[in-house]
Amino acid sequence: xxxxxxxxxxxxxxxxxxxxxxxxxxxxxxxxxxxxxxxxxxxxxxxxxxxxxxxxxxxxxxxxxxxxxxxxxxxxxxxxxxxxxxxxxxxxxxxxxxxxxxxxxxxxxxxxxxxxxxxxxxxxxxxxxxxxxxxxxxxxxxxxxxxxxxxxxxxxxxxxxxxxxxxxxxxxxxxxxxxxxxxxxxxxxxxxxxxxxxxxxxxxxxxxxxxxxxxxxxxxxxxxx
Length: 225
Known about the structure:
Layout: E1 2-8, E2 15-21, H1 26-30, E3 31-34, E4 38-44, H2 50-59, H3 64-74, E5 81-87, E6 92-96, E7 105-109, E8 112-117, H4 124-134, H5 141-154, E9 164-170, E10 178-182, H6 188-199, H7 203-211
Antiparallel strand pairs: 1-2, 1-8, 2-9, 3-4, 4-5, 5-6, 7-8, 9-10
């Protein structure tokens, strides 16, 4: 009922994750990212504790493969879990337990990994990865991630209609530079892309307002709060 992507921008070091599902509010349970550390999905029969646990391990110095091994060693009901991870250097790990639901698959590329369950066909993650690798490396990571997710949907997506989606981008500060969610609607990836187009031109202004408000864009213009 879910497919996802975690990725790293080699040019900027930004990390990102996006996920979509037929279940509501999927990103609230399944998507995690931390600047300078990594990005993680925990999906299938989801245990939301695993995302923060993996990021804590990577923040402590583990790469994605070591963090995956450590999480697997301490996780109960591992056979139900599907996990993807990328670290700040581009290291990747992916796991699908033997009780992953329905048609499922996973694919790995340079600075990108995708996995899914209850898919229309097993090649969906490969389509996600191919689209990310084929995208412009000079583009915003959010653009590349959403294009990859759209390619996964075009390749068949889930066996049923997706209803929720979300994307998190972690750049340099402790908080995400983007944290966008569509928790329940028809066409959530399209809605997520529309939210991104609104947020994208403003997102760095909000960072400036937090760190250097005297250098921020003047108030009384779009993006004020």
